[in-house]
């Protein structure tokens, strides 16, 4: 199996990757690239573990919003694509008449036949996690029923066309985002790292595809409302230090308070304040564990004016005191 990548932003021309059948490999393979054209800053990471190939793009183009990544593959694959920042569209053979799009804080599963296709990145900032695997891997992890029940997949396979499993894509919720972060920030080395990455990828794939049951609920929500929810979730995530209340968030989302609470829980799986508390505690753990903040400093940075209130919320959620992170 061979996949060729050619980006309009990278120096060095075309990148050719050759793989054994079903991405089989007995060791962990990693590469990182940072050689971009002038005005482009960031990294591209490749991670190859048994049966899975990962391409992570995290960079910013100061000169242009639009860039392209041409991909040629000689074997059909499945692509599970998570877009943390930016917006990505792609189509076969530069034919934009049938274009697939994944927006910020969304993800989707695609079947891609042996073909030439083109990614278009519509924002200067790009943070995209692409996970490639084959049908045999998907059947092994999800069972034959997952793809056998998909009529549009079998039709696309017959016609050599791209197929998206979730029409509008699904929301990248907190649980999935946590798994993505754990995968990307692995601190293990050697064989332990290989085992950890394989387990995290399996967990991420299973969680993401099992969440497909919520597609009907999400599709029933108007596109504008869904986009507003995603925008507000990002606002919450980047303003944890501020006072966040239902009235303020509802107003920013353009909903009345009752609708906001109902629709938020439908999409993100929990009430607004429970979601905010979870984000605050996760951020505080990062500040304490990785950046040597004390408990008072961390609690203040995530929106708690009283460290005791933070300690109570932390203990209630996790079952132990934040001081144990320091110890």
UniProtKB/TrEMBL annotation:
GO terms for molecular function: DNA-binding transcription factor activity; sequence-specific DNA binding. PROSITE patterns: HTH_ARAC_FAMILY_1, HTH_ARAC_FAMILY_2. Keywords: DNA-binding, Transcription, Transcription regulation. Gene3D superfamilies: Homeodomain-like. Signal peptide: none annotated. Pfam families: HTH_18. Residues 230-327 form the HTH araC/xylS-type domain. This is AraC family transcriptional regulator. It comes from Mariniflexile litorale. The lineage of its organism: Bacteria, Pseudomonadati, Bacteroidota, Flavobacteriia, Flavobacteriales.
């Amino acid at each position: 199996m061979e996949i060729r990548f050619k980006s309009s932003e990278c120096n060095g021309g075309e990148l050719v990757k050759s793989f054994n059948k079903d991405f089989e490999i007995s060791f962990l393979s990693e590469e990182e690239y940072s050689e971009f054209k002038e005005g482009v800053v960031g990294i591209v990471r490749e991670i190859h573990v048994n049966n899975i190939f990962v391409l992570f793009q995290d960079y910013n183009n100061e000169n242009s919003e639009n860039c392209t990544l041409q991909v040629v593959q000689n074997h059909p694959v499945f692509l599970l694509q998570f877009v943390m920042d930016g917006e990505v569209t792609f189509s076969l053979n530069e034919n934009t008449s049938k274009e697939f799009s994944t927006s910020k804080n969304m993800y989707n599963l695609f079947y891609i036949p042996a073909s030439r296709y083109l990614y278009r990145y519509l924002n200067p900032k790009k943070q995209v996690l692409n996970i490639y695997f084959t049908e045999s891997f998907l059947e092994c992890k999800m069972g034959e029923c997952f793809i056998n029940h998909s009529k549009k997949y079998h039709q696309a396979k017959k016609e050599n066309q791209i197929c998206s499993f979730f029409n509008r894509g699904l929301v990248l919720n907190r649980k999935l985002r946590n798994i993505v972060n754990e995968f990307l920030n692995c601190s293990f080395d050697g064989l332990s790292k290989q085992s950890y990455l394989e387990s995290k990828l399996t967990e991420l794939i299973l969680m993401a595809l099992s969440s497909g049951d919520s597609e009907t609920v999400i599709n029933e929500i108007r596109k504008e409302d869904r986009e507003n929810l995603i925008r507000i979730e990002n606002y919450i995530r980047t303003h944890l230090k501020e006072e966040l209340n239902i009235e303020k968030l509802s107003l920013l989302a353009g909903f009345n308070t009752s609708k906001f609470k109902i629709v938020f829980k439908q999409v993100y799986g929990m009430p607004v304040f429970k979601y905010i508390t979870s984000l605050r505690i996760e951020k505080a753990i990062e500040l304490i564990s990785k950046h040597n903040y004390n408990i008072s400093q961390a609690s203040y940075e995530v929106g708690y004016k009283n460290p005791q209130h933070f300690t109570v919320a932390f203990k209630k959620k996790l079952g132990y005191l934040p001081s144990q992170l320091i110890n």
